[in-house]
Write a structure and sequence with these properties.
mainly alpha
């Protein structure tokens, strides 16, 4: 069960020389469409969670319950990633519209 929790729960960020430098631009996705990610673990995809298998041990977890839980987590992750993508696209659209409006207002004042 602890392994499963470690898979689902993100790692705590450790400080050290191998930690990638963070800036506001890279952390919030303003530099070329890249987003900050930990160097320790790549992001999980829904398919990675669905395809994950665990060995069966005596007195271990019920495999069907683990698989059902992983399927649920994978589905929720896929939905969350889709919603995040939609929100980012909308954010880009709103920022562009704001820049256009500000440019028009600046031209009117001059």
């Amino acid at each position: 069960m602890r392994r499963l929790i470690r898979l689902v729960r993100p790692l705590r960020r450790q400080s050290g020389p191998t930690s990638p430098p963070t800036t506001n631009a890279s952390k919030y996705g303003n530099s070329g469409g890249t987003y900050y990610r930990s160097a320790y673990r790549p992001p999980l995809s829904a398919d990675q969670i669905r395809d994950r298998r665990f060995g069966v041990r005596r007195r271990g977890l019920a495999a069907d319950e683990v698989e059902a839980f992983l399927a649920r987590v994978a589905d929720e992750l896929a939905i969350t990633q889709l919603e995040l993508r939609v929100a980012r696209d909308e954010n880009v659209r709103i920022k562009s519209a704001l820049r256009d409006w500000q440019s028009r207002q600046a031209r009117v004042r001059v």
